[in-house]
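Entry 14. Ran structure prediction on the chain below.
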Amino acid sequence: MRVSNVTVRKRLLLALIVGILIFLVIDVRLGYVQFYLGDMLTARAKDSWSRNIPFEPERGQIVDRNGVPLATNISAPTVWVVPRQIKDPAMTAEKLASVLDMSKEKAYREITQKESIVRIKEGRKISHEKAKEIRALGLEGVYIGEDSKRHYPNGSYLSHVLGFAGVDNQGLMGLEKYYDKELSGERGSVQFYANAKGERMNDMADDYEPPTKGLDLKLTIDSKIQTIVERELDIAKAKYNPDGIIAIAMNPNNGEILAMSSRPTFDPAKFQSVPQEVYNRNLPVWMTYEPGSTFKIITLAAALNEGKVDLEKEHFHDSGSVKVAGATLKCWKRGGHGDQSFLEVVENSCNPGFVELGERLGKEKLFKYIKDFGFGQKTGIDLQGEGTGILFNMNRVGPVELATTAFGQGVSVTPIQQVTAVAAAVNGGVLYQPYIAKELVDPVTHEVVMRNTPVEKRRVITEETSKEIRHALESVVAQGTGGKAFVDSYRVGGKTGTAQKAQGGRYLENNYIVSFMGFAPADDPQIVVYVAVDNPKGVTAFGGTISAPIVGNIMEDSLTAMDVKPRKKQIEKEVKWPDTPLIKLPDFVGMERKELQQQLVNLRIDASGEGDVVVSQSPEPGTKLKEGSKIRLYFGKGD
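Output, structure tokens:
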């Protein structure tokens, strides 16, 4: 059958239209893929070709309040391999093994894994010398990635507070863990491209995404004071060989920790070399024990604030012991102190006198103050592992428990609780939350991202009561059991503590924690220092003979470091054997040489200048010196 021309033309037109439609669909699809999906598909393709060599971020530094570095970073390269790019695995394994001190067999297993990229374990955080050796080998498929590791420039200095970071730069202990998220930063990378065979595509440029460094952490710690504390603890450890030592220094007016240390200690960079209980226990916040007589400060504060005692006018007779509900509670001094004012009760740390104060208060009042001062609960300091201590259940507090609590026996407290409570007792009566992290700072912009500020928990006693406490505790140092903490020209207050250690419900024989709590200046406290020595060996253990001089040394040097001016008004120190009286320097200016012979019997002169008349002297008039001390006199011609 013959088809007409009209039909042919219709069929050609239909075929043309269909063809145009098909090509149009193809063009639209190609355009959609090219222009709309192009970037996404290219990115997917590049992802399938890409290999990432991670660049770990630098962990934020930890510095003291003045910017002194306490925890920093050092560069430590890491070895990565792309197994598919290695053409001669046996040769590559042998050369890598020789540099990285690993077996050839293990190196071979590592570099032949069926992974796109592999990190060599023995090649983690290597020295720059080793990294240079590996680069010099020119091994295909072997790369050096930038990495860093934590560095503690001062070794064991402040170790329990700082803690340490692990091999992956993750915080594992101390402030490193507490502020791990803020210190960590974000990972970067170098991205290169390889084909399906793993061969590098040199026609495509590498992509570099820099890591973001972690925030820097500024502490309240003052390195000058911390160094003094570390020095004194090292001396005490060598001298007494104790089971442990604890020290805390705090600003009583805002809760800032100025120094914190303990023994035994450890080097954060070598924490694996010491038992876990050494690095895992920050004793100043973790350890709980009976405080002994330092706790009497709380009883004194409560009694004064409630108007239960007049320290100057009221008297108490101490026969050496007191009977309470059939129990005999002894004073530390055999035979007792006899008749004494209540100020002397404080100076002498007389147990029966404090039992009397406890009875005057009653258990409800005394325990209310104990809890208000923060005992039996965490202080909230920004450190891990803080203990809560143990107080008597009120239902079980009878006359004996009330009496022993009044002089610091039968309750369990932490060092940080004691420091915080005593700070409140002497700062005017306000309890502050202690803290050790001051600021988080952006290392690039130096912008302060987070700032901790003082937290007032509550007022515990009145300002007038606090003033009375300061005077009483200054008398303890000048006239009483705390004499070894006396610092000439500075008004130091404090309280001794000697507590028998308990174990398994019984007190241990000849095993004591001896402590001293000090503060200065007594008229305007700027620092509170607490030191506790656990079971000192080879000595008769008393807080006044062992811990008090340690606190005195810390206090004297710290006050100087803090630029605290000496005080002219000071309670005169009572001279006790074997102490010798101090000599108060007169004003020698204007005196002739022959006059000096009558004045300087017990002092040595370093003279300079010509003439017969003193024109200047050092130290200044009024300074107190030990016998045999050297003074410098400058001579000239008189007017």
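The first helix runs from residue 5 to 36. Will compare against last week's run tomorrow.
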